[in-house]
């Protein structure tokens, strides 16, 4: 029990709200996966899966567009649906888009399915991440908010 309190005290001392630690870890994992993927996916699709450069560029453009839309809507959805529900929707969209992209689009070499499912995936991570940022502002005391938000951007850029 004393060791648990020491861990919570350490977490608090570095400015992480103890009740949100798992969310920070989730953001770090989301962003690491997204960042690593961006480095190898386009060459893989072009050289190993036979997509044209134009198709790869279209795929990433559609993904970027859906990321932008989802980023814009995340605060609105957090307010309308509630933070936890919006985060779950973001997570589920990301997972469904990933499974659809890999399991249907790539497996069957179906570019239209790749576009649709990668777009769905693009809606997922910003909804999860930016809704968590809203949650941080709700759950963090005012005097610790700057540090808590700083930690969000630290883990967000960790990917």
Provide tags for this entry.
single chain; 159 residues; mainly alpha; 6 helices
Describe the structure in your own words.
With 159 residues, this protein is mainly alpha-helical. The protein is built from six helices and no strands. The model has no long low-confidence stretch (mean pLDDT 89).
In short:
This protein is mostly helical and 159 residues long. The protein has helices at residues 2-13, 21-48, 53-81, 83-108, 111-139, 145-157.
Distance between the termini: 33 Å
Count of extended strands: 0
Largest β-sheet summary: none
Q: Percentage of helical residues?
A: over 70%
The number of helices is 6
Q: Structural class of the secondary structure composition?
A: mainly alpha
Low-pLDDT runs of 5+ residues are: none
Which descriptor suits the 3D outline?
elongated
Overall pLDDT: 89
The fraction of residues in strands falls at under 5%
Specify Rg, calculated over alpha carbons: 18 Å
In N-to-C order, the SSE pattern is HHHHHH
Instruction: List the quaternary state of the chains.
Output: single chain
């Amino acid at each position: 029990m004393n060791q648990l309190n020491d861990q919570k005290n350490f977490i608090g001392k570095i400015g992480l709200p103890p009740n949100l630690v798992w969310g920070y870890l989730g953001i770090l994992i989301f962003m690491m996966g997204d960042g690593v993927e961006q480095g190898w996916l386009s060459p893989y699709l072009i050289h190993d899966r036979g997509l044209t450069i134009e198709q790869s560029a279209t795929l990433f453009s559609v993904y970027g567009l859906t990321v932008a839309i989802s980023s814009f809507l995340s605060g609105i959805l957090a307010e309308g649906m509630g933070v936890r529900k919006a985060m779950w929707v973001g997570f589920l969209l990301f997972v469904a888009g990933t499974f659809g992209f890999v399991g249907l689009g790539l497996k069957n070499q179906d570019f239209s399915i790749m576009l649709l499912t990668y777009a769905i995936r693009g809606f997922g991570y910003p909804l999860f991440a930016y809704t968590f940022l809203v949650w941080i502002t709700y759950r963090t005391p005012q005097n610790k908010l700057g540090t808590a938000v700083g930690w969000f951007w630290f883990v967000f850029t960790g990917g």
